[in-house]
Specification:
CATH superfamily of the largest domain: Periplasmic binding protein-like II
Organism: Paracoccus angustae
Protein name: Transporter substrate-binding domain-containing protein
Helix content: 40-55%
Number of helices: 10
Keywords: Signal
Strand content: 15-25%
Length: about 280
């Protein structure tokens, strides 16, 4: 009888310990969960040079190098990247398919209100690229009456649509047509083939494109719309707060010691003056 009671007590203690373990795991925030499993799973779009793109079978770019520096603050944690079309990243984050989006997410008000966005990783102000030698396009106002390409579901698309309305409000012809693409490489191909007149993207991407394919494309560096930034994205909940705060703190350290500027010089050929106190609230 006593033996049976001891066995029963042992089973009860084991069950209670198991329940305590499960409760503790559930209570741990996302950063602690990542440390415990020794892995962070991130979503990315490796078709957006020079931020993230595939070279010799490896994902490389400014964002990759920057995240590598950030992860020095979490030794022993490996990075697993899920390479997805941009259109699947934000829904995937909300569906808990990965821990964070570590790729260039252009900040706008809807995203700012829906997600926790990091401090800026780069300037994202909108500009456009044209075919080299096209002297009819020298300023954003020259997009009036033209066919323009950009990425589907992107902030660049929203910015292009807003600029078209602005042209119309000024008594000018709006943009004649806006073609959308899964990724910008498709848009650049149509521009090169003469199926569109220009492609709207963020200025750093266009300057990089010009360095790679200056025989075909020419960036028009006059930006339009409000100043815009690229950030990384997290779920806007208490579980994700510690992870987002950790990455912002790492950004501040990398800005202070000059590492971020060195990476910008490496990948863009110039440095950017980015806010480090807080992400500016976007107007639209």
């Amino acid at each position: 009888m006593q033996s049976a009671m001891k066995r029963g007590t042992g089973v009860l203690l084991t069950a209670l310990m198991s329940m305590a373990s499960v409760t503790a795991a559930a209570a741990a925030d996302l950063l602690e969960q990542i440390k415990a499993r020794g892995e962070i799973i991130v979503g990315t779009e490796a078709r957006y040079p020079p931020f993230e793109y595939v070279e010799n079978g490896q994902i490389v770019g400014y964002g990759v190098d920057l995240f590598e520096e950030v992860m020095k603050g979490l030794p022993g944690v490996k990075v697993t990247r899920l390479d997805l079309p941009f259109q699947g990243l934000l829904p995937g984050l909300q569906a808990n398919k990965f821990d964070a989006i570590i790729t260039s997410v252009t900040v706008n008000k809807q995203r700012y209100d829906t997600y926790r966005l990091s401090l800026p990783i780069a300037d994202a102000s909108f500009a456009f690229v044209k075919r080299k030698g096209d002297d009819s396009l020298n300023d954003p106002a020259d997009l009036s009456g033209r066919v323009v390409g950009t990425q589907a579901g992107s902030a660049q698309l929203a910015g292009t649509e807003a600029f078209s309305k602005q042209l119309e409000e000024q008594g000018k012809e709006p943009i004649a047509g806006i073609q959308t693409y899964v990724d910008f490489n498709e848009a650049y191909a149509d521009l090169a083939a003469g199926r569109t007149d220009a492609v709207v993207n963020s200025l750093p991407n266009l300057l990089y494109l010009q360095t790679q394919r200056g025989d075909v494309f020419e960036a028009v560096t006059t930006t339009f719309g409000a100043p815009t930034y690229f950030s990384w994205a997290f779920r806007k909940d208490e579980d994700s707060k510690a992870l987002a705060d950790f990455i912002d703190d790492q950004f501040r350290k990398l800005a202070e010691d000059g590492t971020m500027a060195e990476l910008q010089q490496k990948w863009f050929g110039f440095t950017m003056d980015l806010p480090t106190d807080a992400l500016p609230v976007p107007e639209q």
